[in-house]
Amino acid sequence: MSDPVTRSFEINLNIPRFVTKSLLFAIELDWDLPKTFTPGFSTEIWRSNTNDISSAVKVATLPYPQSNYVINGVPLSTGYYFFLRGVDKQGNKGEFTEAVFGEADHNPDNLLNALEGKITKSQLGQELINSIKADINNAVGEEAKTRQTAVAGALAQIAAQAQSTGTAIKNLEKADQAQAETIKTVTAKAESALSGITAVRQAQAQSDKANAQQINALTAKVGNAESTVSQVSSVVAGLNGKVSSMHTIKTQAIAGGRTAVAGIALGANHEESSVIVMADKFGIVANANDGNVKPVFSVANGQVGIRGDLVVAGSVTNDKLSSGSGANLLTNPIFANPTNGVPYGWFGSTNVPANKLGERQCIQDPDWGLRKGGYLPNENVVRWHNLRTEDSNTRSGISQNVAINANTWYMLSAYMGNHRCTTVQIYIDQRGRNGEYLGRWTKNCRDGYNFGGINSADRVFIKFKAHSQAVSLDVHFFFYDAKVNETNCYMFVARPMLEECTEYTTEPSPWNNAGLTEVHGGSIIANTIRGDHIQANQEIRAPRITGGVITGNTVNGATVNGGTVNGAVVTGGTVKGAIVEGGVIKGARLEAVTGKFTGTLEVNQLVGGNLCEVFIARVYKTIDFYQAWINVSAAPVKRIFFIVNSHKTFTVEANQSHRYLYTHHGENIPPEFFDVVGGNPKICVTAYAVSNTTTMSQ
Question: Taking a C-beta distance cutoff of 8 angstroms, is the pair 215, 231 a contact?
Fold first, then answer.
């Protein structure tokens, strides 16, 4: 009997071609499927804000043979990196494609062409709108209809006479106690063409009001084609003190069964004034010799588009930019510049007994959270830890108060992880003008999400509508006691986001940093947004501001590059420039090739590269020895660390992070321990910056 024949083969699951196409408010994905795909196979679509597959989230899973997908509702300022991979019937997955960038079409010309002819009116005054929409025969109400009937009768008589005499001119005048009226009509007929010019002027006095009115009409008609220009002016003053005035100009053309109308109405009364324009297109020209008409306003699908070269004066406020655009309303959502584990702009709280408090860390954890390489500059993950208290009501967390608008829909989200906690939770309180409580929402992080990289985090989110009296929110991220049979528990939080949304929103927008509302370069005509045309109350927040001079009370941002920065306070991660002038400079780092202080330098703290740093660490006893983990974040200088009153020391190179394990074996209490009472000893760790310049010799 011969040996069995074994044959091996491999099914290719890799996508051979993948491209994107920019559409208006949408992105189209198109790809080729491998020839080995059959029914039951599928394609996964993933997207990310960066060219990093570890931060991507799955958008859709599409069955064979679909090879095209359109993502709608994409803002003009948004772009994504997309990744595809194939999946077979057994769930085996192919390799991800290389990242392919896609964005909505932000070409302003294409947008305006798509909106062409869809301009609509604004609702400023129903009386004026009715004046534009109505035909000239009823433009001024029932009294005007009566007068026009008389005019039409006169025109009919003149037209009949014009049939035989060719040209007729006749003036009709009539006067009585209540009114004086003059009707002048000139008509001419040439074969089938009849043109008329009519002027009606009337003044009328009544017992309770005075009314002055003028109607001018110009009409040209050939066969079934007709064009009309009408102008109506009306002024009314009543004995009750109410006054009003109105002036309308309307053009109308009828041909081929279609009617086009354009008009302008100006009106004012004793309470308000309005200007209303009705047109399919609204454009301007620079002067009488300019033949280049520029479209200005476009309205379609309830959205107003404005095309312009300059924002000349005034200000564009955050509420005009953020709604529905994914702008993050939270302060410092990257958890930068922490103090004792609490990020700047946030507050820490706990009701856990002191002997059960664990670590309070806000670091770039290389193993958990966003992991090494996944953090933005200065970004951290909140990593808090407690020992088990056996009390389900104990909790710890961070909080922030955020101003909001009443009766507005919002979405709060955060990437969270739960290690052995009974609950890790988003917790929101609404507050009124005087701080009164107006309601609460909560949402728990799901079990099984340990946050070892963004794809293993749970993006917890809550959609809610603010109370009619709400002015702010207390946003909390809490974790509660450890589960039964667990000795401790951890909470991880990163990249929180509060955004405005609509009642139809089903999931949070892609994460954005605080106050970051993107205006795509292609949507700024000729790069003409200038610094003197952007005004804010007191703050300009952006990830990067580049320019010669920035003057203001407060400038917040990761990087400010320029020759001179003038202001009372400069706050931010990095300030780079030739000259920095002002009373107070606050920031994480001051960087320059060389530095020189000619006066007195008083330093409370140098963040990142401390000359000397002291840290108190809690020591935990295991079965037969003591231990303590010491987490050291990266710093731009080399440092040497000492365990005070011991022979133990270690060094950490510049720009390197490190996790050091302190141990002591034996039952005796070593000299470095203090606060031994209660069974929770501590040690003191000191760190010193190491200079590359040597001043010692032998």
Answer: yes
pLDDT along the chain (698 residues), means of 10: 57 90 90 91 93 90 92 82 93 92 78 51 46 48 53 57 46 43 43 42 50 66 66 67 73 61 75 73 67 64 54 47 64 94 94 94 92 91 95 95 94 95 96 92 92 91 95 96 94 95 89 61 45 48 56 58 59 58 57 58 55 89 85 89 93 91 87 85 92 80
Q: Which single residue is written with the structure tokens 């990744």?
A: 83
Kindly report the number of other CB atoms within 10 A of residue 324's CB atom: 15
Predicted pLDDT at 679: 73
Burial label for 215, CB within 10 Å (0-12, 13-18, 19+), is: buried
* Model pLDDT, residue 80: 92
Distances in Å between the alpha carbon of 676 and those of 357, 388, 488, 618?
Answer: 16, 20, 21, 10
Cβ distance 175 to 183 under 8 Å? no
Q: What is the largest CA-CA distance in the chain?
A: 132
Among residues 39, 19, 55, 30, the alpha carbon closest in space to that of 87 is found at 39
Contact 226, 256 (CB under 8 A): no
Write down the pLDDT at residue 76. 72
352 and 389 Cβ atoms separated by less than 8 Å: yes
Tokens 């209809």 sit at which residue?
Answer: 145
CB 638 within 8 A of CB 689: yes
3-state secondary structure 192-230: CEEEEEEEEEEEEECCCEEEEEEEEEEEEEECCEEEEEE
Answer positive or negative: Cα dihedral of 289, 292, 297, 298: positive
How many Å is the Cα radius of gyration of the chain?
37
Q: Is 608 helix (H, G, I), strand (E, B) or coil?
A: coil
Comparing CA positions, the residue from 292, 306, 298, 258 lying closest to residue 280 is 298
Cβ count near 568 (within 10 Å) = 10
pLDDT of 426 = 97
Amino acid at position 270, single letter: H
DSSP state string for 500-564: E--TT--SPPSP--BT-----GGGSGGG---GGG---SSEEEEEEEE-SEEESSEEEEEEEEEEE
Is 15 buried (19+), middle (13-18) or exposed (0-12) by CB count in 10 A? buried
Residue 108 preceded by cis peptide, ω within 30: no
In this predicted structure, what is the pLDDT of residue 417? 95
* Cα 245 → chain centroid: 43
Q: CB of 696 within 8 A of CB of 662?
A: no
Residue 156 DSSP SS3: helix
pLDDT at 455: 86
How many angstroms separate the CA atoms of 185 and 200, rounded?
9
How far does Cα 686 stand from its chain's mean position?
44
